[in-house]
Write a structure and sequence with these properties.
Helix content is about 30%, strand content about 20%. It is α/β, with parallel strands linked by helices. Strands 3-2-4-1-5-6-7 form a seven-stranded parallel beta sheet, with helices on both faces.
Length: about 230
């Protein structure tokens, strides 16, 4: 089974891109399943179910979504094997732009949309910087000049990634993404593999439920801003 991590900001079109990718792979008799990691709620499982794609959804709730992802990714792979999938895709949002769910030796895809702002690629962080493939969506509703500038800014952040434009509605460009998916290595387990980037290091009183404001209530690993 192949494993692909797909990550991107909320509403960038991740699910639409995955569904278009699944349609391409279905023509090659490849069985795809998905595990969606989110924080509080999601309705994307309905779209997966309508497409006949096995789907599992997990909500991190009060727990850091990136730690939640890492704590469950091995079980997700085991689920994919039990489902006898050819390809398992994990979908997650980089909610703080500090994190990255990408794993060494596992195909990593970042989805980002043209409407998010010209400078957005420079703000995404390791989720984009460490991706193997960067998929740009919503390119059909901006000018050619805007597409080129956006793509240029993506290249400034990640010099080695393959940059693809994919239309989440029509599926244009999904075929090229499917070629990368088919070339992804097979995995049986993630044991002894490593994340491409560290997760947030902070462990403080606010992580454990503290809501009061003030130094008296701040304990653990903290980083203070120096005001001048």
């Amino acid at each position: 089974m192949k494993l692909i991590t797909v990550a991107g900001p909320p509403s960038s079109g991740k699910t639409s891109v995955i569904l278009q990718l699944a349609a391409c792979l279905k023509e090659k008799n490849m069985r795809l399943g998905a595990v969606k990691f989110d924080c509080l709620t999601s309705f994307d499982q309905i779209r997966y179910q309508e497409a006949g794609i096995p789907i599992q959804v997990g909500f991190s709730g009060k727990v850091c979504p990136d730690h939640f992802f890492i704590s469950n990714i091995e079980d997700a792979v085991a689920w994919g094997h039990r489902q006898e999938l050819d390809i398992l895709i994990t979908e997650s949002a980089g909610l703080c732009n500090r994190c990255s769910p990408h794993i060494s030796r596992i195909l990593a895809v970042c989805v980002i949309d043209n409407l998010s702002g010209i400078q957005t690629p420079r703000k995404i962080g390791p989720m984009l910087k460490l991706a193997d493939v960067v998929v740009i969506t919503k390119g059909d509703i901006v000018s050619q000049a805007e597409r080129e500038v956006f793509s240029f800014n993506v290249r400034q952040v990640n010099t080695r990634a393959n940059i693809l434009f994919v239309n989440g509605i029509t599926g244009q460009g999904a075929f090229m993404l499917s070629k990368h998916a088919l070339e992804a290595p097979d995995v049986t387990t993630l044991r002894d593999m490593r994340l491409r980037f560290t997760t947030p290091a902070s462990v403080c009183s606010y992580c454990t439920g503290e809501t009061r404001i003030g130094e008296d209530y701040q304990m653990g690993m903290l980083k203070k801003l120096e005001f001048r």
